[in-house]
Amino acid sequence: MSTVGYGDVYCHTVFGRTFLVFFLLVGLAIFASCIPEIIDLVGTRSKYGGTLKNERGRRHIVVCGHITYESVSHFLKDFLHEDREDVDVEVVFLHRKPPDLELEGLFKRHFTTVEFFQGSIMSPIDLQRVKVHEADACLVLANKYCQDPDAEDAANIMRVISIKNYSDDIRVIIQLMQYHNKAYLLNIPSWDWKRGDDVICLAELKLGFIAQSCLAPGFSTMMANLFAMRSYKTSPDMQAWQNDYLCGTGCEMYTETLSPSFV
């Protein structure tokens, strides 16, 4: 009525016409007040929705589970380190909640290699959006500060089941808190250690390092420095032992397959 008039049916009395005038004004005011919320909903949905459109021939991995600024920053700092030979791999994060401002800023700093999608790893539709079936691997991160480790492991194991049900041949690497929960992964039919599926038990690593450090003091520090990607520059202002230690922390350990000639 506000654009084309009353049409075939219209008011004859002054009271009816006055009522329609106020009705239109109130309706337009309510609609105008809802416009910002509608724009915000549409913008948020399109911002982290859609489907992954990776470049042809470019590989990608999917990361899910406990997605926070701390866990993502530590992961990207090691995975995208300049010392790695193959860093042309896109990292796709899938989480049911949108990132906060701090995490969003981190994604923007790595916008060429990192992409975030809002969704659930338990939904086949969201797994299709991030192209899990085409990914090189899928990583499930655990919350190492959780109050209930068994509940955290159970949630992550359910994520693995969802991923394997969608694509049984994808490589899955999962973090678990408790050692005894590793046995539940063997009940997944498509879980295969030979195809690269692996589990990292945080408690097992921590207690193992503590035990080995009792036999060889400094073992945990040496292994942590070897398996972590770090780059430090020596300085003439530092003492000699500090420069030597920083030089040692820059060393890494790599795996390489030798040719049959070495057999």
From TrEMBL:
Gene3D superfamilies: 1.10.287.70, NAD(P)-binding Rossmann-like Domain. Its main location: membrane. It is a multi-pass membrane protein. It catalyses: K(+)(in) = K(+)(out). The chain crosses the membrane at residues 20-39. One of its GO terms (cellular component) is postsynaptic membrane. GO terms for molecular function: large conductance calcium-activated potassium channel activity. It is found in: Cell membrane. Keywords: Cell membrane, Ion channel, Ion transport, Membrane, Potassium, Potassium channel, Potassium transport, Transmembrane, Transmembrane helix, Transport, Voltage-gated channel. Coiled coil: none annotated. PANTHER family: CALCIUM-ACTIVATED POTASSIUM CHANNEL ALPHA CHAIN, CALCIUM-ACTIVATED POTASSIUM CHANNEL SUBUNIT ALPHA-1-RELATED. This is Calcium-activated potassium channel transcript variant 4. The gene is Kcnmb1.
